[in-house]
Design brief:
This protein has 322 residues and is of the alpha+beta class. It has helices at 10-25, 75-87, 108-112, 123-137, 139-153, 163-171, 174-185, 193-204, 210-216, 233-249, 255-261, 298-310, and strands at residues 49-54, 59-63, 69-70, 160-161, 206-208, 266-268, 273-278, 282-287. The chain is built from twelve helices and eight strands. The chain binds glutamine. Glutamine binds next to loops.
């Protein structure tokens, strides 16, 4: 694993990104596009983009690194950061910190645990986190807070919220509505369900390119010019904790396999994006819209696996003998 004292070999990173991009473009398997959101069904699976921001401020990009895509559940990392900042450890009274072993939108576990979601990255948990933010900031206030957060980290560069995607997420969001109702039944949901739904689908509908997403992710890097450490110890502490949840729960029921193959804390979205962090070292965004059976980007995961095979960035160490 890299530490902050070990220099980053930019040539090595550039060679790896160029090689992986070429390999991904030649792939014969692209996965299946999400059927969960009607407006995303039309997206062509034949896209691949990748961007790596290092702690030195260099960006290495490959493929369609400037094409915006729907970040979807990756936005749950941003709302979690904002809620942890606002509530501190109080948050853990409402949401757990354990992997679920169920699909991202499963309802089964929520009944078993009396409305207490297993973690903040499955939909039930993310919706309770957003309920907390909406309670504090109001529905539009929550969306504004997430947008401001993203705007700051992309250095004021423009990005969009796709209204059609938001609407279609909302219209098809029966299960999400059921999750909120069940949490409310058990007394773990305070705000109006429609208001939280509106905030949720809008933050999910944010569109960023890989280059922009890698820049936003730098708040989780522990070292570097704009890393968490520069915002003080509480931000550094949150980054460490959020990354632990990304490692154990960030790819839903595929988190174990992802840790085994890639070895990095990461968060996926059904738009085909993945944000992965190399602690102290780099923020990485990949995008390929075709998904695997767990709803994680098929080629995005493969690209990250190849990357940590080539560069010793897995938090579990390198695999080369020399
Ligand atoms: N908005 C999507 C949903 O609620 C997000 C899911 C995801 O990216 N895994 O179904």
């Amino acid at each position: 694993m890299q530490d902050s004292s070990r220099p980053i070999d930019l040539d090595e990173v550039e060679r790896a990104v160029a090689g992986i991009t070429e390999q991904m473009r030649a792939s014969e398997q692209w996965g299946e596009v999400s059927t969960r959101i009607e407006a995303l069904k039309e997206v062509d699976t034949h896209h691949f983009g990748m961007a790596i921001l290092t702690r030195d401020g260099d960006i290495v990009a490959g493929g369609e690194a400037d094409t915006p895509f729907s970040i979807q559940s990756i936005s749950k990392v941003f709302s979690l950061e904002l809620a942890l900042e606002a509530y501190g450890d109080e948050l853990w009274k409402r949401v757990g910190r354990e992997p679920s072993g169920d699909p991202f939108n499963s309802i089964i576990d929520l009944e078993r645990h009396e409305g207490h979601p297993r973690n903040p990255f499955i939909n039930a948990g993310a919706l309770v986190v957003i309920d907390m933010l909406v309670e504090k900031l109001g529905g539009e206030g929550e969306v504004t807070a997430v947008i401001d957060f993203v705007s700051d980290l992309v250095d004021g560069e423009g990005f969009g919220i796709n209204e059609e995607v938001a609407r279609s997420d909302e219209t098809g969001g029966h299960l999400n509505r059921a999750l909120m109702s069940l949490a409310k039944h058990f007394g773990n949901f305070r705000c109006d369900i429609d208001q939280v739904m509106d905030a949720y689908v809008h933050q999910c509908a944010i569109e960023l390119s890989c280059r922009q997403l890698a820049r936003v992710g730098r708040f989780l890097m522990l070292e570097g010019p704009d890393a968490a450490s520069n915002r003080g110890d509480p931000a550094r502490c949150r980054a460490r904790r959020i990354m632990s949840l990304m490692m154990t729960c960030g790819q839903y029921d595929g988190s174990g396999d992802f840790a085994y193959r890639v070895g990095l804390p990461a968060k996926s979205g059904v738009g085909g994006g993945i944000l992965a962090i190399v602690p102290n070292t780099a923020s990485i965004a990949v995008w390929a819209p075709g998904l695997d059976a767990n709803g994680n980007s098929l080629l995005g995961t493969l690209a990250l696996e190849l990357l940590t095979d080539r560069i010793e960035w897995s938090v579990f160490g390198g695999i080369r003998t020399q």
